[in-house]
Amino acid sequence: MASSVQSCPPAKLAADCSATSCRGGCALEVIDELLARTDSVRGEDADLLLDLRSWIRRREDAEAVLRTFCELRRRLEHREYLAFFRLRRWLENHLIAEVRVCPAAEPRPVPVRLQYFCLEAIRRASLCSALGSGEPLLAPRVQFVYRTQPSSDEPSISSRSVSAVG
Q1: How far apart are CA 55 and CA 113, in angstroms?
Q2: Which residues make Cβ contacts (< 8 Å) with residue 152, sequence separation at least 6?
Q3: Percent of the chain predicted with pLDDT > 90
């Protein structure tokens, strides 16, 4: 049923995993263990896992990472729940959404929450989360980006990202 992925300490599997304590290579280890499970991962799923692994390893294209993760999650999470729980936590710790109410506005960093199985639903939730003040939307934009490695109290935003229209 569920994979017995054991590469992270048990504390990393629960609430102790945070943006400041999450190991950068944890997601790669989870993907490698999924790829090694020939009984549940084959064909196109393996190709998608390899794509996801490559983007995460290079910290490239946060939008593609989320899109691919959502597709894999729909296909495999029912068989590999623990692995996808760990991937969700890792992505939530390493990605943020930059929300702009219009193209000229300053971006508002918003935590990415992966409670949905669809990238567009995640985008909408990020937009709604940033706009709690009732501010009018002129031409909203949501851009998913990697957090920079934490070096201070407040996480900053990496310049490596791909823009997405909300």
Answers
A1: 19
A2: none
A3: 52
For the chain, state the CA radius of gyration.
16
Displacement of CA 56 from its chain's centroid (Å): 9
- pLDDT tens-digit series, residues 60-83: 899 999 999 999 999 999 999 999
**pLDDT beyond 80 at 142:** yes
Domain-by-domain residue ranges, the chain? Answer: 10-93, 95-162
The whole-number pLDDT of residue 56 equals: 94
Q: Which residue has the tokens 């851009």?
A: 143
Distance CA 49, CA 41 (A): 9
**Which stretches does DSSP call E strand in the chain?**
95-100, 108-111, 141-147, 157-162
Q: How far is CA 27 from the centre of its chain?
A: 10
Segment (H or E) for 119? helix 119-130
Exposure class string for 93-131: b at 16+ Cβ within 10 A, else e: bbbbbbbbbeeeeebbbbebebeeeebeebbebbbeebb
The helix, strand and coil proportions of the chain, stated in percent and rounded to the nearest 5, come to 45, 15, 40
- What is the Cα–Cα distance from 91 to 111, expressed in whole angstroms? 10
| CA atoms of 53 and 65, how far apart (whole Å) | 9
